[in-house]
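Field log, afternoon session.

UNIT: design team B
ACTIVITY: writing a sequence onto a fixed backbone
BACKBONE:
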């Protein structure tokens, strides 16, 4: 009997690089670091409230529109009731679009925050 070949471990390049320590003020918990963090959190909260408001004013008011205008429930588009089409089909692309826009804006806020911190360290 022959011995099986020796196992070789194959690894790729590291996927994530270790975080770079940029802000000693934030790490140390100073007042200036607190101001920076509150600014970032306030901007992220403003973004989240804005996205929720858009979602509430578009998708959230659709059931109310059907309740206030009962004639809409009889409208058919492509053989489907309008309510089913709006609430069962078209809502999902809208949610994906809102999520995509939210993530892009949140990442931009974080990138701007990191640039602000790198400017203050110079």
């Amino acid at each position: 009997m022959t011995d099986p070949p020796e196992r070789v471990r194959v690894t790729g390049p590291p996927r994530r690089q270790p975080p770079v320590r940029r802000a000693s003020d934030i790490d140390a918990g100073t007042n200036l670091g607190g101001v920076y963090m509150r600014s970032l959190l306030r901007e992220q909260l403003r973004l989240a409230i804005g996205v929720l408001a858009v979602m509430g004013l578009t998708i959230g008011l659709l059931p109310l529109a059907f309740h206030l205008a009962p004639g809409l429930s009889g409208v058919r588009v492509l053989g489907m009731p309008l309510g089913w089409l709006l609430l069962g089909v078209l809502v999902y692309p809208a949610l994906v679009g809102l999520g995509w826009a939210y993530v892009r804006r949140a990442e931009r806020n974080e990138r701007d925050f990191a640039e602000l911190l790198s400017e203050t360290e110079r």
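LOG NOTE: The longest helix spans residues 82-121.
NEXT ACTIVITY: expression trials, pending approval
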